[in-house]
Amino acid sequence: MTVVQAVVASRARRIARRALVVLAVLLVVDLALSAGLYVAMLQPPDVFGQIIAKTPFPLMMVLPFETLWNSARGGQLKSGDLAPDFRLPGLDHKSTVQLSSYRGSRPVVLVFGSYT
Fold first, then answer.
1. What does the CA dihedral 91, 93, 96, 97 come to, rounded to 10 degrees?
2. Cα 39 to Cα 12, 45, 55, 73, distances in angstroms
3. How many other C-beta atoms lie within 10 A of the C-beta of residue 93?
4. What angle do CA 69, 70, 76 make, to 5 degrees?
5. Where do the structural domains in the chain lie, given as residue ranges?
6. How does pLDDT run across 75-105, given as a tens digit for each residue?
7. pLDDT higher than 70, residue 116
């Protein structure tokens, strides 16, 4: 091996080592940010909303948002399971509606979403 080849090989090893260090640092930062986002998703909706409102959009593009969301907020129900019982105020806000009162009487369709 000539001197030039040795210098080139040494420089290539240094560059490769630096690239590995940079990749390792980026991986640690990504894992830390993803863990922070996951913890934020476990918070009540109003707290999560405040956190996510201050999160820069480019950061949201590089983090695995949907995967973390499905894990944090996906729940345990599977297709075909009975929906858990709940009670909500009626449209008139004077009465309440309870899901279990409809079980067995007729099919019930639950639609969750935003109508704003």
1. 10
2. 40, 12, 14, 11
3. 7
4. 130
5. 3-77
6. 888 888 888 899 989 888 899 989 988 888 7
7. no
